[in-house]
Amino acid sequence: MKNLLVEKCSGENIKIKVGNVVIGGDKPVVISGPCSVENYDTMIEIAKQLKKIGVDILRGGAFKPRTSPYDFQGLGFEGLEILSKVGKEVDMPVVSEIMDTKDIEKSLEYLDIIQVGSRNMYNYSLLKELGKVKVPIVLKRGMSATISEWLYAAEYIMSCGNENVILCERGIRTFEKYTRNTLDLNAVAVIKQKYRLPIIVDPSHGTGLRELVPIMSISSITAGCDGLIIESHVYPDNAVSDARQTVSIKTVESIIENIKTYIKYLK
Amino acid sequence: MKNLLVEKCSGENIKIKVGNVVIGGDKPVVISGPCSVENYDTMIEIAKQLKKIGVDILRGGAFKPRTSPYDFQGLGFEGLEILSKVGKEVDMPVVSEIMDTKDIEKSLEYLDIIQVGSRNMYNYSLLKELGKVKVPIVLKRGMSATISEWLYAAEYIMSCGNENVILCERGIRTFEKYTRNTLDLNAVAVIKQKYRLPIIVDPSHGTGLRELVPIMSISSITAGCDGLIIESHVYPDNAVSDARQTVSIKTVESIIENIKTYIKYLK
Amino acid sequence: MKNLLVEKCSGENIKIKVGNVVIGGDKPVVISGPCSVENYDTMIEIAKQLKKIGVDILRGGAFKPRTSPYDFQGLGFEGLEILSKVGKEVDMPVVSEIMDTKDIEKSLEYLDIIQVGSRNMYNYSLLKELGKVKVPIVLKRGMSATISEWLYAAEYIMSCGNENVILCERGIRTFEKYTRNTLDLNAVAVIKQKYRLPIIVDPSHGTGLRELVPIMSISSITAGCDGLIIESHVYPDNAVSDARQTVSIKTVESIIENIKTYIKYLK
Amino acid sequence: MKNLLVEKCSGENIKIKVGNVVIGGDKPVVISGPCSVENYDTMIEIAKQLKKIGVDILRGGAFKPRTSPYDFQGLGFEGLEILSKVGKEVDMPVVSEIMDTKDIEKSLEYLDIIQVGSRNMYNYSLLKELGKVKVPIVLKRGMSATISEWLYAAEYIMSCGNENVILCERGIRTFEKYTRNTLDLNAVAVIKQKYRLPIIVDPSHGTGLRELVPIMSISSITAGCDGLIIESHVYPDNAVSDARQTVSIKTVESIIENIKTYIKYLK
Lengths: 267, 267, 267, 267
What we know:
4 copies of one chain form a homotetramer.
Chain A: E1 16-18, E2 21-23, E3 29-33, H1 40-53, E4 57-59, H2 77-90, E5 94-97, H3 104-107, E6 113-116, H4 124-130, E7 137-140, H5 147-159, E8 165-169, H6 185-194, E9 199-201, H7 203-207, H8 213-222, E10 227-231, H9 249-266
Helix pairs in contact in A: 1-2, 1-9, 4-5, 8-9
């Protein structure tokens, strides 16, 4: 992969600033929130609690890529509007997934960071259009994407003018069925050693099991990632999507405490 | 997958008519042409020869999803215009891949069949928009998509109003490196036994090696598929993309002869 | 893989003669029988019926590698004795799996062909010992073995002196869950084009679903394999192991009829 | 997996004592040494240095399962004899792989722990025989073994009478080619949460790249594993096998220092 923008170069690693938050800096960031934005009341409750425990960025899905067309598809722009309003009220930057090139422009009114989901990592039309905006992009790894393909996907965005790309490892598809995906922390180590992009980890999709999220969060941090994106909810069992991998706010709090201890003593 | 449109039902299997060609009928169809539309002269030469040997439908890529942004990305609408013109001159229906919702409407001026590539099988925005047109859709299986996810992708299109979906098995990603992908003919047999959609096979991507295309074409036909889509070129070694898996027109001819023998004696 | 015994060379492909049966010759062979040898009465009944419909070689498991230690582990040498007796009575060569180097010598009293199961393809101690006997070896592909590793496993046997190796494709492990394994017919085509070893296909393990066995048998034959190994039983539903993928004798008969038609007209 | 010996139960987690070392106790153990025992002089030099930096157990391969029969196959019992002699001289317990049931008895004269390699995880004959000895067994996960199959492999040993089983995660086979295997730390977390067996991690095979070994060692420890097994050599580049993933003694030292810091502050 010679001479690509993603490559390690003489310059510094890319640091991405969103509001007061720096991704790729000295301190891992924590992004959290529900899989889906459900309504204003639930969202503001979640956001207030996450803000209080020190979460840096708020997530919430509005355009939901669901396997079945008959499953809840998200609130769309109504969801983004709620997310944006809530983000402002609690003073947190917000991130959400966009799936269609035609939605990008309007989404910029609401979002501080745009997420490209795993299912759209190879959607090169979307990536090229996202290369034309300035907002940071969280680029999830495709379900069966090689590290090399993933970096080329980042290159698609960067070569069109937007170098604010944050990679996100979220597990790959293997034969193993106990966990939803196989979290590939080797990939985190490779990215941090050889390339200059920030990388975060999604232990929620990376395991699919809420009881594994805390331990794999710490394991990800020690593998060198620049942050975590964790699905959380005030009532995890009642989350309208991905309940099985959604943790409580209290669990996020203990993960943050844990990270602080690691960081304090070890870096 | 109870009560889905993709399911086997009391009604007949879906047959899709494009010009004089029936996909899902008694006779397997052959779709062929170059990976990329390169220019008018090459395209018309390829098309005339393919027409002569009995190929049913002409393919040619205009929007090319390439791993690297620095590789040839296709001629875009200029390519579709060439393909359409050539198709009319030789009297063959044409198929090409569309990757962006905003290109669908314009592409309808040129295409008889729209292809959803492997990288976009999970692009639900695209699938939903394709559910609103009437043109048949070739839906390639995602690189690591389960049969179930693939059928749900078809359901996305069908549930929006377009039941003209043709599945296309093109190999899945496994640990095996000798071949580009592992052609999953089990999947063909499953689809034909349990669901009512037509299914074709792409032995070019399914193997990645031109010398395997003829034998795997026949193996696919005997596994029960409704047709083949084969990358071919008048000068395979000079094809601007996927040369390693592109066969000569003469090879396509021998594949067609072979299929005829099988069909004659055995069905 | 230069200069290996498995390589295609100036000499002819390897043909293996067992009794009156030739594996790797002009005509595909059919090996069939129950997953496990259960008792003499059932075995002789199965064997007589298989002999009558034209099956070439009789199979029956005596040493069974089961995932759980609490599942039926096979009758061991008692099973081999039954199999051998039955084989002689119906005049059919017999094949069964051996899992332990210390059992090889004794098994030679009973078996015409020794099978190395998928779980033991990397058991190099076993392979080396099997290289010291003269009996033909059916070498199943490991669950996640590359074609190259599989050929090296054959080379282990051949380099120790026994060139009578028959490869057996039985499906590889992938993310797909609908079928037990993904039958890799690309691998059959690769072996037949580039190497001189005979190769057979096991559509029973390769699909895990009895309803797919007949169609995938034919698809395997047209991919160029030299034969099939099919799990069958007089009462498939009552088979003590692998019932879900075991077919009736009648089904084996129709597969054989089908193969004959293909062979007659096409080769 | 109800009512199996591997299950979490009312009793304590299994702790395995080897000399003065406890595996599965409060403190992670470090096992290290060369991929292959090469000769006495190199082995004693490596051992002395490893002892000095605090490595708990010495490893060294004597029976080497190599993909090609023409690659160095190890020194066999001569290698075990060297390893045993060296272990005694530096007062460290020793572990090495055994591949054949007929070698078990003799190997007990030399080894404190027997390793079952990845290629032999499904070798049930070997597992049953190892269930009849008392020496602890390191059971590596098969290349494409599910967690469930791996636990059943442990159950094979335990149900025959030997409960001293130490699981070893060493990476699984996926489509990713950058790393030799994909280290599955999810599996470590699952085992520690639900089952009572100790589990160690092999970051050498789990990555295949020496530059990833230190970071993945720490990531493994924070995922909860009970120890590490690391390939090391006084002259890593000259190691006769697996040089690309072999680290220097100095690197092992820094890993141990790192672990101590983590343990001191965090447990």
